[in-house]
Specification:
The chain is built from 10 helices and 18 strands. By secondary structure, the protein is an alpha/beta fold. Strands 3, 5, 6, 9, 10, 17 and 18 form a 7-stranded mixed sheet that branches. It has a 6-stranded parallel sheet with strand order 13-12-11-14-15-16, with helices on both faces. α8 links the parallel β15 and β16.
Length: 356
Amino acid sequence: MSNIPKTQTAAVVPYHGAALEIRKDHPVKQPSELAPGECLVKLSCTGVCHTDLHASKDDWPLHANTPLVGGHEGVGEVVAIGENTGECPVKIGDRVGIKWLAYSCLNCEQCRNGREQNCPKARLSGFTVDGTFAQYTVSYVHHVTPIPPNLDSNAAASILCAGVTVYRALKYSRAKIGEWVVLPGAGGGLGHLAVQYAVAMGFRVVAIDTGLEKKNLCLELGAEKWIDFREAKDIVQAVREACDGEGAHCAVVTTASGSGYTQAVDYLRAGGTLMAVGLPGEAKLEASIFFTVFKSINIIGSYVGNRQDAVEALEIASRGKAVVRYECKGLSELTEVYDALKEGKVAGRIILEMSK
């Protein structure tokens, strides 16, 4: 532990509305300063998520703490554990993942019912506590996730948020093997993983996105049908026709656009389920109450995942059933990555390597 530095490189948002800063002198919490239950993780890489962009821009109804070190898809090595930590499930040297949910109490009604992410005492990586856009981060021994030994760290990073999020949504979607699942935004970071998890779970996938690159990606990953939202004159009708003329059994909407939700209610068949996953800050969910009732439509919010969801999502990825398509960059390039995300130019995910 003596080789742990006092300072590190980190990407910091100093205050709400401020530009991102790459700081070379951000403090590293020392092993002697760790509280019981805390651990210090030396990060090798981290994914970049749209949530990080929202936190940086401060355009959500919820506001991040500042100064903010964002990021919540980190993989690294445990290098220190707080003194007097009881029943510790990890040890120094373990490779672990840091997720959006950094901490929950594990004892309230929400935690006991498997909704740890809804714990009133939840701490959120890169939002309410410092996250993974740094060389070192502090997390909590009962919430870091073991990384399967045969899964590459860069590949594992995006599973910790994007993968877990879409996996849980599909897991609780009520869709059955052989049923149609529609995935708006299928060529994006969450979407391309949703395609793979859906295929692995036996669902038939209709991918909605735009552009030849994303079309080729979705079809290669196993989508049966493709709809380009810029070319389709009537997306609702196009989805119905793609799904045997009756509409989809389920839609997992990961886009940050209100229109994606409204359309989903219209193209679902009777008894269908809308899984609301994307988090547009100001948009409203507008749907016909009459036809929502008349068609027995289910609308379910699905918010990231719990510790078990993360283990399952990583296990599926470790068997090659969900492969992250990613491009590697350095931490200093984070501002450029945010610009690409804003413009919708990122196919797959971006991974920031700490060695770059």
